[in-house]
Amino acid sequence: MKVSLYFKDETWNKFKKTVLRRTGDKNLSSEVQTLLEENDVEALLRSGFGQINVDAKPIISSKIVPVKPSAATSAAATIRKMREGRYDKTVSR
Predict the structure, then answer these.
(1) SS3 at position 28
(2) What is the largest distance, in Å, between two alpha-carbon atoms of the chain?
(3) N or C, which end of the chain is more exposed by having fewer CB within 10 Å?
């Protein structure tokens, strides 16, 4: 398959120099291929989970259902309580 990519001249020239310096070769296509493979996050995750014998099936965002907490919650009250625990109550703020 043939794919065209468009970069700013400065970006492409910097990439070419980096590839030439690192590999001593101007085979830019293989470097682009390597970068794409290394940045395939889904494949990396599957591989990592496979190494620890965990079946990692992708979750489709449309299948995620929001859950309402069974008890009343207040983030402000929880944070206030956490902050109070950090300060000595005899010291004024």
Answers:
(1) helix
(2) 72
(3) N
pLDDT digits (tens, 9 = 90+) for 34-63: 888 888 888 888 888 888 988 777 778 888
d(CA 87, CA 91): 8
- Angle at the Cα of 89 (from 87 to 91), degrees rounded to 5? 85
Under DSSP, the state recorded for 57 is P
Q: What is the pTM of this model?
A: 0.41
Are 55 and 49 contacting, i.e. CB atoms less than 8 angstroms apart?
yes
